Amino acid sequence: MVNRRLLLIAIAEATLVLIGIYGYTTTYAPQQLVAGVGTEPVTLTGAGASLSYPLLSVATSKYQAFHPGTAINYQPLGSESGITQLTAETVDFCVTYPPMTQAQRNKAPVLPLHIPESISAVVVAYNIPGITNLLLNGNVTADIFLGKVTTWNDPKITNLNTGQIFPDKPINTWHMSEAEGTTFVFTSYLYKVSSDWQSSGLLYGTSVNWGSLPPNLIQFSVLTDAAVANNMKSTPYSIGYMELSYAIQSNLSYASLQNSAGNYITPSLESSQAALQSLSQDLPASDQDWTNVNLLNEPGANTYPLVTFTYFIAYRDLSVLRDMDLAKAKALVGFIWYLVHDGQSLGSSLGYVPLPANVVAIDETGIRSIVFQGQTLI
Questions:
Q1: Domain total for the chain?
Q2: Which helix (H) or strand (E) holds 356?
Q3: Taking a C-beta distance cutoff of 8 angstroms, is the pair 92, 319 a contact?
Q4: For residue 261, what are the CA distances in angstroms to 51, 67, 93?
């Protein structure tokens, strides 16, 4: 709902005001970090994942308030689209999950940097009149999306949800047709936890062959997280996957999923943050391969199993971009620095987990390495 979204943004901004009143010392000093940022009118363009778009949208508005001369135009067209456009040098940056493969990195005109910029949960949202606390495990979730469980009162569902009466109604499933990082997270999780999914032939990826599923499955295909959320609101007895903030903004219910410890965990800031407990301190540098880093089905009694990074991708040498100049390069670096520092506080009310200190340190090193025509920007 638009009003709910505006309320959440207002809460986030009000929180920043209160923090400022009570002595918060900002880590972001644009006039010191990037000399001259915001002094010339510039427009930055980006494209990619919708996973972190709610956070990017709020952070963009706040950054532009600091720097009225900087306009930032980001289009949530899907991770694959963002990578394709950055490789073709038609945008200044992209945001993606999963991280770029080695083959994709090799196609880039110069070395791309991975800057982890958000940590978020993917949820299994539902619209079942009268049901407010749905419990699911990985096997049953996989069977629903494979068309092996097609009604809400199927014993596989009711046995997990004792004491609740489920309607004898067909299940409407929603998924994304665009090459989206949310699909990669969701299908990678199902591939990890469900033998039925492993043998289905769908495997995992930003796109999978939903059309190969049985004709008895009622399934709807739309482009992005926002489209899934918007359509599910008006479609009773439906289920779909999306990033947590879209479910919050749309006032959709979402399932508690069984984690690797056998507990049913509701997605939240706290249960998503628990996935970081086993995160290795020996993470890749920004200019290295991040494809082996994931936060899916991590151990811990209170850990939510569907958690992911998203990555801000920028070139180490920005001068390779045809429309880039020094003023734009400074603005871009200033925005990235802001996003991984003060911008993190904007996401808590939307369900985004602030980056841990070791990840911020990796980001800082990567951002400081960005140059324009050999000139260091920080």
A1: 2
A2: none
A3: no
A4: 26, 47, 39
Give the C-alpha separation, 242 to 229, whole Å.
Answer: 7
For residue 6, pLDDT beyond 60: no
Q: Are residues 42 and 168 in the same domain?
A: no
Among 58, 105, 272, which residue's Cα sits nearest to residue 96?
Answer: 105
Query: Are 300 and 209 part of one and the same domain?
Result: no
Burial letters for 266-291: b for 16+ Cβ neighbours within 10 Å, e otherwise?
A: bbebebbbbbbeebeeebeebeeebe
| Last residue in a domain, options 233, 251, 276 | 276
Query: Which pLDDT does position 24 carry in this prediction?
Result: 26
Q: Are residues 91 and 142 in the same domain?
A: no
Range of the domain at 235: 122-276
Give the residues across from 47 on adjacent strands: 75, 94
Tell me the H-state helices in the chain.
2-21, 30-33, 53-66, 79-87, 102-107, 138-146, 155-158, 181-193, 195-198, 225-233, 244-250, 269-273, 326-340, 357-368
Flag whether pLDDT at 114 surpasses 90. yes
3-state secondary structure 108-155: CCCCEEEEEEEEEEEEEEEECCCCCCCEECHHHHHHHHHCCCCECCCH
Distances 150 to 81, 216, 255 between C-alpha atoms, Å: 33, 8, 17
What pTM did the predictor assign?
Answer: 0.88
pLDDT at 31: 41
For the chain, report the end-to-end CA distance as a whole number of angstroms: 40
